[in-house]
Amino acid sequence: MTYQAPSPSVLSSMLDAVSFDKNGLVAAIAQQHDSGEILMIAWMTREALQETLLTGRVCYYSRSRQKLWRKGETSGQIQHLHEARLDCDADAVLLLVNQIGVACHTGRRSCFYRAFSPDGLKELTKPEIDPNQLYGHTHA
C-alpha cells in the first residue's frame, strides 16, 4: 500500500479533531505496519503531524531540542508512513510505518527492549548497530 496524502481541506479538519495537550503535543506510537512490532513512542505538534500526513515521512517534535525532528535526519533510520490512526479520546496517534533500519537511539530495532521481571529489568535484544555509527557520538 502506498501512502496517499489528504487534500488540504480534509487535512485541516483532521488536525482540528486531534486533542493536543496544554503544551500543544500529542503522543505518537510508531508500529511496524506489517509485523505489528511496537517501535517507539514520541511526541508530535500539529505542525509535525501535518508534515507527516502531507509527506508520508514521519516527523516528530523533540521536547529536548524544542524543534521538529524528522526521523532519520541524523541517523538515516527513516520511517515511512503507511497509515495514521487517532485513538477514541483523540489524544494519541498510532503511526503504522515502514521502519528503515533501527528505531531506537540505542541501536536497537525497538525502544521497548527491556522487560520487567522478578529479578529486575531484563534486556530482550542487543543493539543491531553501534549508536556511534548512527550519530557520531555516544547515546545511552
Task: Provide structural commentary.
- With 140 residues, the protein is an alpha+beta fold.
- It has a single domain (8-105), classed as Phosphoribosyl-AMP cyclohydrolase (Ubiquitin-like (UB roll)), CATH 3.10.20.810.
- The chain has 3 helices and 8 strands, in the order αββαββββββα.
- The protein has helices at 8-17, 46-55, 131-135, and strands spanning 26-32, 38-44, 59-62, 67-70, 79-86, 92-99, 114-117, 120-123.
- A 4-stranded mixed β-sheet has the order 2-1-6-5.
- The radius of gyration is 16 Å and the shape is globular.
- Its cofactor is Zn(2+); Mg(2+).
- In the C-terminal section; belongs to the PRA-PH family. In the N-terminal section; belongs to the PRA-CH family.
- Residues 40-113 form the Phosphoribosyl-AMP cyclohydrolase domain.
Question: How many domains, in number, for the residues?
Answer: 1
Report how far apart the termini are: 35 Å
Strand % is 25-35%
Q: How many strands in all?
A: 8
CATH superfamily: Phosphoribosyl-AMP cyclohydrolase
DSSP helix fraction: 10-25%
Overall form:
globular
| CATH classification, class level | Alpha Beta
Tally of separate helices: 3
**What gyration radius follows from the Cα positions, in whole Å?**
16 Å
> Which ranges are low-confidence, i.e. pLDDT below 50, for 5 or more consecutive residues?
none
Strand order of the largest sheet: 2-1-6-5
Average of the residue pLDDT scores:
93
Q: SS-based structural class?
A: alpha+beta
CATH architecture identity: Roll
H/E topology pattern: HEEHEEEEEEH
The CATH topology name reads: Ubiquitin-like (UB roll)
Q: Main beta sheet: strand number and arrangement? A: 4 strands, mixed
